User: Fold this.
Amino acid sequence: MLEAECSHKFHFINASASPLPLRQFLAAHHYEPSSFLALLSLGAYPDITADVLQLLPSLSLIVTNSIGIDHIDLLECRCKGVQVANAGIVFSEDVVDVAVGLLIDVTRKKSLLITDLNYAANH
Assistant:
C-alpha cells in the first residue's frame, strides 16, 4: 500500500524478500549502495547492523513502523549521523485494549465456549 502511494516520489526495494545477503542483492540488481538516502524498516526484521550501515554510506534516515528499535544499531547510527524514527507509543493504547480483552476472554472462557459450540454444530 505504501509503495503504491509513494512510488511516484520514491523507489522501493525489498531486500528482505531475497535469500541473498544485502551486498549481493544490491550487486545482483545493479543498485548503487551510495544512492540510498533513507531506509524504511517494516517490523523488527531484518536487523540494521553496523555492516548494513557501512554498506549504505549515504544513508541519513531510518524509519521503522515498530515501537522498539533494538533491531537497529543505534551507536553506529549516532557515529554516522543517521537519524532514527519509530512508531513511539502510537500503538500503546491498542496493545492495552487487546491485552485486557484477552484477559477477559481467558477468565470467562469465551473462546473455549465458542470452539465447543462450533465443534458441536459441525459434528
Notes: Strands lie at 38-41, 61-64, 83-85. The radius of gyration is 21 Å.
